[in-house]
Amino acid sequence: MVKVRLREIRNDLGWRLRRYRARRARAQSKAIFIGITGSSGKSTATSLLGHILAGHGTVHTQVLANTLKALVRTLYKRMKRAGEVDYVVFEAGAFEPGSIRPMAEMLKPDLAVVTMVRLEHFAQFRSLEAVAQEKKALVEALSPGGLAILNADDPHVLGMASDVRGRVATFGQSETADYRVTDVHAAYPDRLTFSLRWNAGEIDVQTPFPGEHFWLPAVAAIVTALELGVPPEEVVAKTASFEPLANRCKVEAIDGGPQFIIDAAKAPWHSLNIAFEMVAKARAVRKRIVLGQISDYAGSSRKYRTAYGVARDIADEVIYTGDNAHRSRASQADRDSGRFLELRTPKDASDHIKQTAVPGELILLKSSANLHLERIALAWTHDVKCWIPACGKSEGCYTCGLYEVPFEEHKSFVANRRIERRKRRYERLLGGLGFRRRS
Asked: Which InterPro entries match (predicted)?
């Protein structure tokens, strides 16, 4: 008991020390700090903005890992290693009430960007107003004279303008937006294009995204870059060369095989129709939708039934997988004809697609991250051996990188890899000191 208590005290003191060092690093840094939040689009906006700014200065981008611990690590450890930078772009995620404010107060952003407010983490927030209140903490923490970049089309976001101590720039399709978006078009294989107009100019933008809904995070990043003084022509060029994030509608086209749109990072109910609409507008010889876990909805699991009704009108085949695969309420006629398939595991879904694929067909993989449906696409280019239905890891398979190793061997594989790395570092150290390893 005493040892446990001492360990707790040590861990608490260590965390306090890291936070102190992080605050000191923030106070001493001359970088421009940018915080980005929102119910959807923040990861893409953060990553794209970092990509654009990289051609205009030195940048540290913290994306996906969007917690207070990640921010502390960024400020006191990673920035120290990288040296002074011109820009720090940080994605701030909300997991429960009060989760953003500590990050915002430590970050003290010079620019705060809010993409949208939707009902996310339903069990914790319960209402749009509660989500908006949480996101607003980033805007309220702006440094004196800072800039808030807000979505003019979302009243919950636009309402945050009254709490800004500095300047506000709005973007959206609304005629009142400072940066107005028009001519939005995407119909895969045609990638997203749009025009952006503001008082000082106009640009036509080509992006690598397969769906129209990506205009919002793209414009959020572009407007921020323009406000920071990046030339419009440089913004256009960098946006066109951006590589979308894994599992966020990244396209994986297999030579002689299917084309996958991998949207397997999250599947909140409020955004499901957006993914389906993207498939509906696409052009392909055949369309299939693989649906896994839906999240963030109120009421019963009838949402799976509703989703199937929409999906079957869009796709030639709909595959439900995961623990809720039985909730589609698909008719017996749809099951008998193959219009609907209930395959409980990602491995079953992968095997079926491998056996029935048609060259050039389009397959949407849509689910919350727990099922790791990206493995279905990976199996076409890699020898995937990790097929556990739900591994418990929050990171995607592309980041984990262990999909070619059976799940039960992950721990030993990582341990052996760590030992090998230490051996190589030790040998390099000895080599630098003039010693040679005996054969």
From this structure: Mur-like_cat_sf (IPR036565), Mur_ligase_C_dom_sf (IPR036615), Mur_ligase_cen (IPR013221), MurCDEF_CellWall_CoF430Synth (IPR051046)
Q: For residue 359, which phi and psi values (nearest 5 degrees)?
A: -55, 130
Single out the residue of 239, 373, 238, 228 nearest to residue 294, CA to CA. 373
Considering only CA atoms, which of 206, 204, 196, 205 is closest in space to residue 227?
196
- Give residue 434's pLDDT: 66
Query: Whole-model pTM?
Result: 0.87
C-alpha span between 71 and 75 (Å, rounded) = 6
Which phi-psi region, left, alpha or beta, contains residue 296 (left: φ > 0; alpha: ψ -120 to 50)?
Answer: left
| pLDDT of 125 above 70 | no
Q: In what order do the strands lie in the sheet with 317-320?
A: 250-253, 259-263, 362-366, 287-291, 317-320, 340-342
- DSSP SS3 for 319: strand
Packing angle of the helix pair 232-240, 215-227 (nearest 10 deg): 140
Q: What are the tens digits of pLDDT across the range 280-308?
A: 999 999 999 999 999 877 666 789 999 99
The two three-digit tokens of residue 289, written as one number: 């939708």
**Residue 260 clears pLDDT 70, i.e. is over it:** yes
Contacts of 125 (CB under 8 A, 6+ apart): 94, 96, 97, 119, 131, 134
What are the b/e assignments for 230-248, b being 16+ CB within 10 Å? bebeebbebbeebebbbbb
Taking 60 as the threshold, does the pLDDT of residue 258 lie above it?
A: yes
Q: Is 67 helix (H, G, I), strand (E, B) or coil?
A: coil
CB atoms near residue 409 (< 10 Å): 13
183 touches 195 (CB < 8 A): yes
